[in-house]
């Protein structure tokens, strides 16, 4: 029998469950090999014991009724197949009718077989228990994962509900915004119409203002024309008075050895008539007609203007003659 040495765990070795399970799985083949060797040695000892009993009782040797145990990597125990008991044709047939072992020997043999079977059953139970623990641990991990997935699913479901509520709220908000947009568009059209109307009113007001300003300018021009006409009339009256005064002075002067200024400042009567016609604005206002205007134009052409003659000194026909008597 080959001895299998098992290492005793040191004091400083890890003591956690996972590390112990890992160490057990690493040493499991050695343990199974040790159990197989023990079982085979036990079977061989039992066979030898049976042979010794047979020799003592003058019986032929029987083959071992307990098959050897072979361990596979899958953890299953396979018994070697035998073709059956080795029986000699004549001798075995004769021995088959002989009585079996005594009751005491048979009981011992049965007890040993029961012990061996019990050992095998215990080993199988330990193996099955280990597999059951492994499966239970995997089941616990799976259940924990399932619980985590359930909690994750609950969280995702709650998020989905929140998103659905948010989507509904956003849809309602979009609908309200669309209605507001329609109202704003209609209001913008109304405002455009109002703006067009106001623009027309502004143009009208500008035209009215322009007309008003033009009318005011016309009134101002009329007032200025009236003032000019009034001033012209005053100037004409002053001129007539001045001429009358000159004529009176010229009549009162004496002609002795002096130049008569009557003939120097005498204005022809046709010139005076032309001046009176040119300053008669009342006839123009009353609409005297184009004939009077044409007559005045002809008179102006025939007779030189009074003011031009005054400027050119054409009316002074004689030179100055100073007399200290009349100064």
UniProtKB/TrEMBL annotation:
Which ranges carry the NAB domain?
1-56
Pfam families named in the record = KIP1
For molecular function, the Gene Ontology terms on record are: actin binding
Keyword Transit peptide tagged: no
Organism's domain of life?
A: Eukaryota
Q: Which UniProt keywords are listed?
A: Coiled coil
Coiled coil among the record's keywords?
A: yes
Q: Which residues form a coiled coil?
A: 218-245
InterPro entries assigned to the protein according to its UniProt record, in alphabetical order:
NAB, NET_actin-binding_domain
Q: Please report which protein family the annotation says this sequence is part of.
A: Belongs to the NET family.
PANTHER family for the chain: KINASE INTERACTING (KIP1-LIKE) FAMILY PROTEIN, PROTEIN NETWORKED 4A
* Name of the protein in question: Kinase interacting protein
> Which species is the source of this protein?
Solanum tuberosum
What is the name of the gene encoding this protein? LOC102601518
